[in-house]
Amino acid sequence: MYGNVTEFILFGLTQDAGKQKAIFGIFLILYLVTLFGNFLIVMTIKTSQTLRCPMYFFLFYLSFADACFSTTTTPRLIVDALSQKKTISYNDCMTQVFAAHFFGCMEIFVLILMAFDRYVAICKPLRYTTIMSRHVCGMLVILAWVGSCIHSSAQIFLALRLPFCGPNVIDHYFCDMQPLLKLACMDTYVINLLVVSNSGAICMVSFIMLLISYIVILYFLRNHNAEGRQKALSMCTSHFIVVVIFFGPCIFIYTHPPTSFPIDKIVAVFYTTGTPLLNPLIYTLRNAEVKNAMKKLWCSKI
Question: pLDDT tens for residues 135-181?
Fold first, then answer.
């Protein structure tokens, strides 16, 4: 529902001209590094003959989701940092809400699939190839895509029901449900509850599921030999670091009361820009197989 508003003004991270120039430079570099890192992982897994196990199959989709998720928010922040007119049309704003929630939810589901893969590999090693077959992995990724689409469709359905009569300044650097709720000229208590029960519940339940899976994995690791335990712990540690960096800010943003805090925008930077940047670094610097495959790819291209 449009009301009287056909476009919004994004406030951004700051209105200070000097800081905006710094934001432009910093986030441009971070975004380019994010795209390069995730694209490199996608290409490495796609071309490598050694990275054919389910863990790298899921890592491929995690890197793809990371690149897309970062692209939904960061380019707008970069352009607006040097733009005098920081406007976004109503349709573009709604598209950004849908895309951000779609790829963000996709990342959550892929992280769960990666944790499930580690659980099966460590706790049920004899049945691993049967349970995590190529067909099963493909079906799990399809379910992740469908689940993400359902979640983002629910978000955009709620967003489209909001009437906007003015003002039209969004106190954020991208369109999301919480800042939009502040601008709606209606009682948004029920819609906010639906947003929290949707986004907040997905983040919280997924995080609890992942914590339980790691507790179970740690319990089973006590029976492994020292070398196997060290390798499994290294993989799980990488995954857990990603989970904490991503879910911590998400839970904070989508579960607190319908009151915007000044720190919300800084917290959002962690999961919209920080996590997509750190994922390729964490999964490559701590993974010898990926590093070796990248070296082979680099050498073959040269």
Answer: 999 999 999 999 999 999 999 999 998 888 878 899 889 999 888 98
- Answer whether residue 100 is part of any domain: yes
Q: Could you tell me if residue 2 is inside a domain?
A: no
How many domains would you assign to the chain?
1
Q: d(Cα 14, Cα 20) in Å, to the nearest integer?
A: 7
Structure token digits, residue 292: 């070796």
Match 């939904």 to its residue by tokens: 72
Judge whether 111 and 240 are in contact, CB under 8 Å.
no
The residue whose two tokens read 């573009």 is 92
Q: How far is CA 114 from CA 31, 181, 260, 294, in A?
A: 25, 34, 33, 21
Report in angstroms the alpha-carbon separations of 284 from 62, 103, 288.
Answer: 13, 22, 7
CATH number at residue 56: 1.20.1070.10
Q: What share of the chain is helix, strand, coil (3-state, %, to 5)?
A: 75, 5, 20
* Stated pTM of the model: 0.90
Tell me if 63 sits within 8 A of 36, measured CB to CB.
no
Domain of residue 217, residue span: 7-301
Q: What is the CB-side half-sphere exposure of residue 58 using CA atoms within 13 A? A: 27
